[in-house]
Amino acid sequence: MQACQCKVIKERSLMIVNTWMRWAILAALSFAVAGPAMAHSEKDALQAVAEFFKQATVVAGPTAVDCTLSGGTKTRCFSITVKPRPGNYTPGPWCPTQASDGPDKSGIWLKDGQVLDADGTFMGSLPQLYKDNNWQMVDPKTGKIKVTDTREACDAAARPDVDPKYRNYCVQCLPEYLEADHQTYVIPLEPRAPAQSSEGRLSGAGVAFNGVRLDGPAPVDAILGAYTIAPFDDCGGHVNLHAGYHYHAVTDCLNKSAPTAAHGAQVGMALDGHTIFARLTADEQAPTDLDRCNGHTLAGLGYHYHAGAPGGNSILACLSAEAGCALEGDAQACDASRQRRPPPPGGGPPPR
User: Cβ(312)–Cβ(343) under 8 Å?
Assistant: First the structure.
């Protein structure tokens, strides 16, 4: 047992995903023996977690904690508190302000599996795009586009029950509107298979390597039903006052700066403890053997996910193992079995 532990430590220079797999095997053996061996394997795991999130703005952790997963399993998790602030780029832009604004002054929108530039031309084409003349995003005389440009406007429009006065607005919230902008993720150190897979929108898909939340599908129907557009930036993210800055798509922007292994870019960790890779592998191919949750098993890697296509509004379709928790602020206690209610109409707290 000790020799196996030493091997893990000596091979720390290998890619994070291989370290994680070696720890998972080590941990499985440790459960059968006394406490010191278990403590040592947790230490190895926490070191791997810290390395994986080295590009994140970490407030606290990672530490090992007791947790209850979504299926009721009581186990050990890692807890890490991070700020959703990517270190290698500034989030935005989102909304154009004039019909003449191009892609450099706007974000993107997702429709029918496609990624569209949400620029001034796009805003002007909404009546044709959605076959509905109630869309009037652009002032025909001035070319001005109505944008939620205050915290109050953001609060009134970025929610399921949009204030009617913000119909035909481009909705954007800014990171500086947030009073507390950190979240705690409590994720199982060893994935535990549930009786059935769980929907990824339950509490989000997971967390990216840079500390930004990988969320469930954006409530596009609710957004469009209020005659609003809430663009994502080119990295697939936007802001609301509940979740802060978060992703609804994994784009090349995220893939290029993610830790890389032979299989491809490792973009995040799912709430069930499985690794999330980019949609395409290192040879630019999309795996053809993915299950309904976008996962598959490979020798040396074990089970892992691949992010969905950017235009699909679904980073993960579901989770294959029991989920941990995504908690606001620096809360530590995780009982995911009490968080299994479906989201309210419109997709949960303010449109994500």
Answer: no
- Work out the burial of residue 164: count CB atoms within 10 Å of its CB; fewer than 13 is exposed, 13-18 middle, 19 or more buried: exposed
Domain spans, the chain: 1-52, 59-352
Tell me the two tokens of residue 344.
């309210």
Q: How far apart are the first and last CA of the chain?
A: 46
Give, for all 352 residues of the chain, the pLDDT tens digit: 434 333 333 333 333 444 444 344 334 333 332 333 344 588 999 999 999 999 999 999 999 999 999 999 999 999 999 999 998 899 999 999 999 999 999 999 999 999 999 999 999 999 999 999 999 999 999 999 999 999 999 999 988 889 999 999 999 999 999 877 789 999 999 999 886 655 544 557 999 999 999 999 999 999 999 999 999 999 999 998 888 999 999 999 888 878 877 788 999 999 999 999 999 998 889 999 999 999 999 988 899 999 999 999 999 999 999 999 999 876 668 999 986 544 333 333 334 4
Residues 6+ apart with CB under 8 A from 262: 15, 282
